[in-house]
Amino acid sequence: MDVAIFHKLLISAVQKGASDVHLQAGHPPLLRINGDLMEVKYHPLSPDETAAIAEEVLAHTYRKDQLSSLTELDVSYGIEGQARFRVNIYRQRGTFAIILRVIPVIVKNFAELKLPPVIEQISNLRRGLVLVAGATGNGKSTTLAAMVEHINQTRRAHILTIEDPIEFLFKNKMSAVSQREIGCDTPGFAPALTAALRQDPDVIMIGEMRDAETVEIAMKAAETGHLVLSSVHTLDSVNTIARLMGFYPGDSEPIARKRLADCLMAIISLRLLPTKGVLGRVPAVEILRVTRTIQECIRDAGKTADIPSHLEKGQEMYGMQTFDQHLVKLVKDGSVDLEVAKLSATNPADFERAIMMEG
To answer: Same domain for 247 and 306?
Structure first.
C-alpha cells in the first residue's frame, strides 16, 4: 500500500463516517462504522506494508523513534485540509499494526453532538474540576473539544491544552489557545501541569487523568481558581470518584475525598448508542453536578453509592440525570430502539418500569 492508496483509504473512511481505521498484517483494512468493524475490499496487508505505513506516519511527526525498537506509540497524522487522525502504532506477533482514530477537522457544537443543554452551563464555569467519563470510543475527546471551542467562542481567556497526542486543532477566537503535546512540547502530563500554573491559564484541558501525580496537580489547579477539564476511562460518576480515590493510599483518602468534594464541579459520563432507523449514533449521558448533598456523598465513602438516587432527584433543579433517565427520553422521542436501550441501561428492571410509567 503506497502513500496515495493509504490517503485514499483514510479519506474514504472519513467520507463513510468511520470512527476508526484498523490496519493489521495478514488481514484487509477494517473500518469501524456505527460501532461495527467492516472489512474493506482490499488484499490482506503484508508485514512490509504495515511497516511502511508506520514509517510514513512517523516521518510526518516530530518523533525520531527507530521503527526497529518501537513497541507502541501514540502520535497524530494529518492529510492537509482534509482529515486528522490520532494514531496508535503497536507490535503484535512481531509485525506492526496501526489504529487510526478519525478526528473531525471541524469541532461540532453541543446541539450537533446531541448533548444535553446543561453541558453549556457547565462549560461556562470559571473554576473547579470538570471530568468527562466513558469507555474508549464513546465521545470523550469530542465532548471536551466542544467545551473548549464553546469557551474559545464566548470568553476572553487563555486556554491551555495538554494532550497525548494533540487531536482537535483550535484557532484563537475570543480566547487565546495554547496546545502542548506530550513528547514534543513537554516530557509528560505532570511537568506540563506544573509549568501550566506559571503560564497564566484560565482554563486547562488535560487529555486524560492517567496517574496519581496528574490527578494531584489537576486538583491543585482547580483549587487555585482555574477551570480544569479532563477525561477519565470510567463508566459513570460513582466509578469515576472511586478511580480518582484509588490513586491515594488508604490513610490519605479522607483528605483527598474532602479536597475532591470541594473542587469537583461536574462529571459528564457518556455511552454512544446506535440510532433507531438510520445510520449514526447518539449519546446517552449521565450528568452529575456537585451540590452540597453530592459533596457529602464524595466526602463519605459510605454514601458514594447513594449518588445515582440524588442524580434522579436533581434533574429538574440542576439538570442532573442518570443514564437510565436519559435512555427513557431517547426511547420516548424515537432516537433509540427499546431493546438497545435495555442492553445499555444501568438497572434494566428499573428502566423497564420507568418506560411502562411513561406509557
So the answer is: yes
Give the pLDDT band (50/70/90) at residue 280. Answer: confident
Q: Which residue in 105, 78, 121, 89 sits closest to 25, CA to CA?
A: 89
Claim to verify: residue 282 and residue 189 sit in the same structural domain: yes
β-pair type (158-163, 176-181)? parallel
In a domain, 187, yes or no: yes
Ranking 46-55, 82-91, 137-146, 349-358 by mean pLDDT, the lowest is: 349-358
Same domain, 173 and 304: yes
Q: Number of folded domains in the chain?
A: 2
| Residue 331 is assigned to a structural domain of this protein | no
In this structure, the answer to whether residues 62 and 157 fall within a common structural domain is no
User: What is the spatial distance between Cα 199 and Cα 239, in angstroms, rounded to a whole number?
Assistant: 32
- Give the three-state DSSP class for 108: coil
For the segment 101-130, what is each residue's pLDDT rounded down to a tens digit?
999 888 999 999 999 999 999 999 999 999
Q: Is residue 65 scored above 70 in pLDDT?
A: no
- Which residues, 6 or more positions from 311, have their beta carbon under 8 angstroms from its beta carbon? 237, 286, 287, 288, 320, 321, 322, 325
The CB density around residue 158, as the number of other CB atoms within 10 Å, is: 14
> 179 and 309 in one domain?
yes
- Are 53 and 98 a contacting pair, CB within 8 Å? yes
Q: pTM for the complete prediction?
A: 0.90
Q: Which residues pair with 37 in a beta bridge?
A: 32
> Is residue 28 domain-shared with residue 135, that is, in the same domain?
no
Q: Cα 168–100–145 angle (5° rounding)?
A: 20
The candidate with the shortest Cα–Cα distance to 164, out of 188, 137, 193, 128, is 188
For residue 156, name the pLDDT band (cuts at 50, 70, 90).
Answer: very high
